[in-house]
Amino acid sequence: MNLRVATPLAAAVAVAAGVFILVSLFVPGLEDLRNRILNWAILMAALALLLGMLNLFSVHFEKIRNRQQPVYSAVLIIAMLATFGITAWEGSQGVISTWIFNNIEVPIEASLMAVLAISLTLAAVRLLQNRKDLMSIVFAVTLFILLLGSGPLFGIELPFFTSGLGPYVNGILSTGAMRGLLIGVALGTMLTGLRILIAADRPYGG
Amino acid sequence: MSYHSAQNPEDDLPDWLRALRKRQEQESTDSSESEDASGDSTDPAEEPEPAQDPDWLSEIRLRYQRGKEPAEAAAEEGHLDDTKPRRLRAMGNALAPGELEPPADQEDSGPARLRGGDKSVQQEEAQLPPENFFEESATPSRTPAFSEDEPSITPGELPGWLQALRPGDFPKEDSRSEEMLPGSAEGGPLAGLSDVLPADPSITQVETAPVFSSRLEITENQGLHAAAFTKLLREVEGPPEDEARRVARPKRVLNIGIAAVLFLSVLFPLLTRSQSAVRPDPQFFPETTSVYSMIDVLPAGAPVLVAFEVQPALFGEMAPLVSVVFAHLLERQANLVFISTRPAGPALAERLLQVQFAASPAVATGTYTQLGYLSGGMAALRSFIADPRSAVLSTASVDDPWQSPTLEPVRQLFDFALILVVSSSAEDGRAWIEQSADLLPGGLAGVTSAQASPLLRVYLHSKPQTLHGLVSGLQGAALYERLRGQETGLGRTYWDAYSYGLGAIVLMILLGGLYGRLIKLKPEKPAAAEVQRGA
Amino acid sequence: MNVSPLELIGLALALLLIYSLLLPDARRTIRSIKAFGELRRTIELSVEDGSRLQINLGGGGLLGPDSAAAFAGLTLLRQVNNIAADSDQPPVATTGDTLLMLLAQDTMRHTYSRLTIGDQYHPRLGQATGLTSFSYAAGTLPLILERSVSASALIGSYGEEVALITAASQQAGAFSLGGSNTLNGQAVLFGSAQEPLIGEEVFATGAYMDSGAAHRASLRAQDVLRWLIILLLILTALSPLVAGFQ
After folding, report:
1. What is the pTM of this model?
2. What is the ipTM of this complex?
3. What is the DSSP string of C53-77?
């Protein structure tokens, strides 16, 4: 379809669907139709999942062709196809698919989390080297207080931090700050949604 | 081009010239009557003897006669003499007309081979025409076609309009400097022409190319600059190192160092089965006590909805906490109903049950319910909370889970005795709390990771209260085990390792930060001195 | 004082329409955010030296509130492609959600068409590198560590896994700018990214990258609503005091 025709049509569909969903949240009697439309969206998300698989396959196949880390890309493609095939054949609760999930995916992701602990420690070490403004100092001090208040260090409890300063910073100061940030994020989220509802911002099709 | 000297030159002459010469010879021998113009045996052609010479022939004869008197001829020359290059005029004084032999003083400047050093050249020279080939003899056997000293053409008369276009009188004299003026050709084929290169053997002589010294002549200032530049180049050793690699190498060492310290600090208490770290005091965590109380009062067989929103990456942290809470639930004989808005949620719940509670009768007999994966994000969650039975769930079970004995009496979400949100992220917990705030008067209880606790804690104090209890992180696991009176368990086992790891992290941040600041405080190396020395 | 969601949405919509249609003051200056200035500079430098820009949109889907941060990332992607699409190494977008991947590809395809270089576009410029948060981070690392990336912008819904991406950016010597709608992500980005965006600054991406009057109007409406909420909070906090006096 010509882009010139598709863009206004996509905008019309997006605006109509968005307005309807918003109205249905406040007007009773439209829940069934709303759920039906949401189910269409869920179906499209599932189809998009297949497209994402194809995209991943295409990207890594191209890497194999161009000899850019071909071994890693080959392992990825083989693992992806094998997992997809096995799960499609015997279901998500099947023996092999469950074994793949329990013995490959979960340990790998847990390992990434462990690597994250090291990365965050290194980032904290370098925090004041890279940035010397007031906010960074406040951030570093708060980090220390909360770490000391998270539990005993080397088996030694510091009551001042674990029972006093830590809960105060965590419960009072940071809660207020978090709420402020969340209010700002919520406002931004709302305005972003409204921009799309009035078609002032069209992330679909330019 | 070689000349065959054995051949009679007369044979090469055209007929008319030959006839002219004969006539001249005849005239010259009138007095002597000793020669016969047609007696030359080499002249096979008959020469015509016209009764009256044509005008042009008379002119040629006249010119020939004039050629004998070059001085007179030169005086009679008109303005064309001015155009003759001076050099040629000078050469003309040195050489006789037609003479190509270089002056004696120029002979030595030629190459050795032309000076007689090379036999082949000598042979070549022998083949050259005789020196007097172009010489005008007293008894000329041939008449030159023209004389260089004579103007070959009469000066033309310019028409009036062309004269008017002339910018001015041409200078009578050649104003060019002597160096620019080439000599005029006094003899040879270019005789009389001006501004030509002298056609004398000196031009054709190839001189030895002058040898220039390869030594570079530079000034003192240039030498100083060159020395400084050479020094600069010497100081540059190899290509500049890749900045990323230069940064990455020490960072990699630091990463490995931090990992080693963390690994050792966590492994040490596990290996030594240390239990020295004091577990948290429940009096400081009333929200955890609330969860304990809520579960402790559940009647047997009560349906409990567990929203299992755990990521695979955080399963390691959640496992001790969820294990102790599930153990409490199973001890109270609660009927667990699992649901998740994360695709991996049901699989992780199943894994936890099979690994930790395989021996439990509820798990062994399968008296728990997996509703499956609820796709659609927050919108689908809102729909599920409003009407659980109408939600579209992805479940592996063939049978309709809502038809099971556990879920038979459940029509709305508040029919569950307890709704427990097991969440590794604050966003999932918030979604459940906020979407169910107006539909669940009884509220929820939360079992979350430590990172979600600060954000969800505020809901404990909301009005109306949407979150009635919260237990979070490894600290919550250790606390809950203490509440249950357990001395063993994953929480107790990991608590010491957690304590030592936390201490190691605090120390590394403190020492690393101080070291980084000390490096920044170090004075810079004095590089100016070296630069001055080099300059 | 209770404000219903519908009233709040209506007020926000009215402000948005007023500022975008009736009072579109393009000359109004907005406070400078160093992160966006550095980003602009880095974009220009990368176009000059032929290095690649990477726009990471995170794992937020389109069916929840996380989508707003993803849309901010799409706005940035569009603006970056407007500048750098025909450079030696065109920008690459990574996502942790396949719907977002389709949107990213669509955005780039339209940008290329608008710049009349549609033949240079190919779908591999937009990639879904993983479907869980950590797998997404792990899939993004090779793109950064190949060292052809000079700048990595992380605008979207991120959690603590974003620290892996920023660490890789630092290792590769790439400029990193990050903003997230989650508090965990913001905290991690503050400590690890070169230029973090805190709070609602991530939603100001469109206005700071010259995406149009609607984005500037949205920013102004956001400011007005924020001041109104501050006023409401203060009044609500003071109301018991006033009632006590009465």
Report:
1. 0.72
2. 0.89
3. EEEEEES--SSSTTHHHHHHHHHHH
